[in-house]
Each structure stands twice: as structure tokens, then as C-alpha cells.
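Re: that chain you flagged

S.,

Sorry for the slow reply, it's been a week of failed gels. I finally had a moment to sit down with the sequence you sent. For the record, here it is as I used it:
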Amino acid sequence: MTFFQFASNNVRRNGRAYAAYFLSSVFAILMFFLYATLANHPVLLTKGYVDPRVIAGMQGAEYIIFVFAFFFILYSMSSFLRGRNKEFGILTLLGISNQQLTWLIFLENIVLGIATILVSIVVGLLFSQLFLMLGSMILDTPTLPFYVPIQALQVTCSAFIVLFFLGSIATIFFIRHNTVLALLKGSQRPKREPKISILFALLGFALLVTGYVIALTFQNNGNQHPVQPILVVILSTIGTYVLYSQGNVFLIQILKKRRSYYWRGTNMLWLSELAYNMKDNARLLFIVAMILSVAFSSTGILAVFRPEERASANAPFTFTLAFGQRNSQSAQPSQDVLNHALAAKHFTYTTVSVPFITLQAKEGVSAYVLMSMTSYNRLAECAHVPLLSVHTGEAIALDPPKSIRPTDTLSLRESKKRLHLVAAKAPIALNDSSTNGSPLIVTDLAFQELSQHTQQGLYVGYNLSDWRMTTDLARNVQNTLNASIPSGKPLGLDRFVFTSHAWTYFNRYQLPRVAQFIGLFTALIFLIASGSFLYFRLYTILTENKEQYRAIAKVGLTESEMQKSVTIQVAILFFAPFLMAVLNTVFAMLAFKNNINPQAGSRVLLALVETIGLFLTIQLAYFLIIRMQYLSQLRQALV
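Prediction finished late last night. Pasting the C-alpha cells below so you have them in one place:
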């Protein structure tokens, strides 16, 4: 048998122990590969269906997955090595040298890493078309065809081969300095009774409560660099760690002092074992709680924006491009820039231009953009929306307040005329937010009279057959127009507004959906990895628990009692950090609501329920699977 065969057989014999690590690594590499496949799709790169920031976001997700995968692999391999200390000690007694043991561990990690990469690539190729279809739906693009992702294959293979290579080198240092006696003892070293500090336990609780109070009471009044959010993160982080290292053991000690409860059934067994486990696992539970807090909070905040993003996406955009300038005499140079850009791209288009005026209300600082009925109906005909009919003395508000009363009137500073406001009921022929003021439609005679008091502006609408192809053009035109304004010149009558259907659509709809798309899958990776961390810990103490339950079974412990004790301990191990993450997420979401949108209470509540419900379902399924496997291993000790 060659040394490589020996290493391969070791991986195969420990297949059940490596299962959670293997599957978690496969999922992380799979997500990396699928994101790379989508981000490098030739249709997205050449057809202009998505904003470059979307591609950058997916590439950013790849970096996050890669960095997280490195630390995940490093921690996972160190956990497995600690669980195999006794095996390494026996090999050392049989004559294996330090160099050979180091080479053995390195080969095992490389074999497992290559197998993980190959499985991830095969699964990724099988499901790439499904992921591309999902990506098309999220990005709202035509269905992306299947292609052979050569670049994604190269990036994934090279990145994770390097990652496993570096991880394999790093894990060697976890055992190379241990003595043979220490290796043979493995995890069976005597444990001291966990000691606690009531002062530190109360301090952790106080820090956590203080962080929550600051989060609820903080109001950002325009400060660009507030220190309160940073303080909240620091206090909640330290408080969470101290609670896990001291508070949990303190709570268990209180339960142990209640003799009527402690001596009932198997409570003595699982409480005593849990006290040691919670103390030993304080750092692990803290890491898992913080990972889940980040995953829950980011997913919940992204979910809050979903209703707003949908409403924004449905905002009226009757023209592919629209351009308005308050001074019609200054509009020609800006219009030439837009026409030249369209000609350079060889776009065919139709255009319509109409005059407007901008007036101020007598009360308040509101500005109103007025158009004549004839001018507006020219836009409506070009945009294929219903025409409007305005009566004398009326002004139809295209962007009215939520409720206009029949008695509402409008007085303008530049005129003694009072206009009766009427809300528009039909689809309007102006792009959303395409004017510097609330648009009103008046009669031709009223417009002619009011025009005597101010300078006329020009509104120009452009229609193209495929508005999605104009994202880059719109960005370049906007940058050119902004650069044309002399430095320090006030935005008076020369002020212009340029709107693009594609650009606004990508900003309001596509980018938030991509953020949700990336955030959800990244959060799932964090969730699965956190469950794997807990499984690694259980595997590390598996041998010790087998011997413990075998000894207790000889004095009368039944299988059902063993299952109950183990289930309680594993459940606490899984759901203690989960509940802490939920608590952190609730206060983070409430702070977000107070500072971003105090009226968004129902949306925040819905996002919380959806986020926590989704992750709770996944965590529960993970718990049941790992519990079943762990109990299966322990039952063998009772046979």
C-alpha cells in the first residue's frame, strides 16, 4: 500500500465524520461556482441587460464566500484533527515519524479538497441551467441560455485548490507540537468543574441590555459618522460572549441547586454534562451566534425593501429617456449631447418636445411645473396613454397628495389666479420624477397667461424599441450633462432633469433584487456552516460520550433515557445561539425601522417573521438530521 492509498483510505474510513464538513464545503463551492457562472454569462456581459454594479455585486459575493470558506475549512480541519488525536498517537507509537504524519495529514486534506471541488463542479454543471433560469427571473431578463462556463471553471478550481492547499498547511500546526502521551489521551483528559463569576455574568447581561437600549433610542439626525451604531455592535458582541462564557453556566448552576428538579429523572445527567459543554463551547457558541445574527439581520433588512422596490418598479415610465430644462434657450446644447449619444449607438427613436413653466405656491416652498392641455396631450399621444380634458379654472395634478378634497385650491406667487386642484385618474404621460416640481395640467389659456410671469422650459421625451439597452448610454449622458455645469454656478432657470427608464429601473428594482438574491444564499451558507461547526464539536466528544453512556448503561440507563438526555443537550447546543441571534436581529430591525422609516412597522414585522421562519425551518431540519446520526453512533455503545 502506498502512502497516498493510506491517506485515501483514512478519508474513506472517516466518511461519516467528514460528511457535514464535506457537504458544507460542497455547498459553499457550489454557490461560488454558480455565481461565477451567472456573473460571466456572455449575454449579461454583452447585451447590456444588467447594470455593471450587478456583476460587481455577484463578484463581491464570490469574495465573501471564498474568505468565509477559508476560515470554515481551517476550523473544520482543526476540529477533526483534535478528534483523531488518539489515532495519531497510535501511529506515532507504531513508528511513524513527524514528517510522515505531517505528510499524511496534508495528503488527506488534499484528497478531501479535490473530491469536494470535483463534486461541486459536477453538481454545479448539472444545476447551472436551473440557476441561470432563477437568475433570469431575479434580474428580470430574457431566459439565459446554457453555456460552458470555462472562466467560472478556471476561477473556481484555481481558487479552491489554493485555498485547500493553504488550509492543509495551516492545519498541520495543530498537532505537530503535541507529545505522544497528549495524543493518546485525546479528548479524555479530566475536566475541572466549571467556575463562574457572578459579577461577569451580570456584566455581560448589563452590556447586552445597554446595547439594545442604545439601538432602540438612537436617532440619526443627519450625522454622517454616528458612533452609536459602532457602540451598539461592540456592547452586544462583548455582552454575548460574556453571557455564553459565564451566564449560561450560572443559569445551569441555579437549576442544579433546585434539588427537586435536579434529582428528577435524567436531569442530573444532562445538566451536569451541559455545564461542562457550555463552558467548553462558549467560544464556538459565540461565533455561531454572531454568524447567525449577521445572516438574519442582513436578510431581514433586505426583505423590508421588497415592497418599496416593487412599488418603485411600477412607477410610470412612458418614455425611455426624458429630458427637462427650465430655460428652453439653454436646452439645445444638452439636447445635442443626448442626440449625439443616441446616434453613436445607432439607436432608432422617436421624440416629442413641449414647453412648460415652473411657478412657486404662495404658501410654503412647493414648486409646480405647469403644462398646457394641448402640450400634455401631445406627450400622451406619443406615449399611448389616455388624453386629458381640463376645464377652466382647474389644474389636474399628475402627482397629487394621497387625498385631494373637492375644496382644495392652489394660489401661485406670480399670479392672482386661483386654480381648483383635481387628481389625475388615468396613467400619466410623464416619467416618474422627471420634473423639478409637482406637475399640473392647465388649460391652454391659463398656461398662456401664466407664461407671462416666468421663463419657459422645454420637456423632451424619447421612445426606443428596447429601453433595457440604454443603461450605459443614460449614465454617460448624465455624467456629460453634470460636467457641463460650470463650477459654482447656481441651479436656477438653467436647472435640468434627465431620467432614464432603464437606469431608474436598475437602481430601484434590479439592484435590490440582486442584493436579496446574493444575501439569501450567502446567509444560507452561514447557517449551514454554523450547524457544521456544532456537528464538528459533537464529533470531537463522540468517543468520550460513548464510553460515558456505556458505563452508565451498566447501572440501569435505558436507551430512551439516553435519547432524551442527548436530545436536550444537542437541542440547547443548536438553538441557544439561534435564539440569541433572533434577539439580536429583532433589536437590529427595530433600530433600522426607527432610523430609516418609522412608518414601516408592518413591513419590518413581516420581514422578521419571514426571515426567522425560513431559517428556523432549515435549522430544525439540520438539528433533526444531526441528532439522528449522533444517536445512531451512541446506540452502538449500548449494544
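What I noticed first: Residues 325 and 495 are 6 Å apart (CA to CA).

Talk soon,
D.
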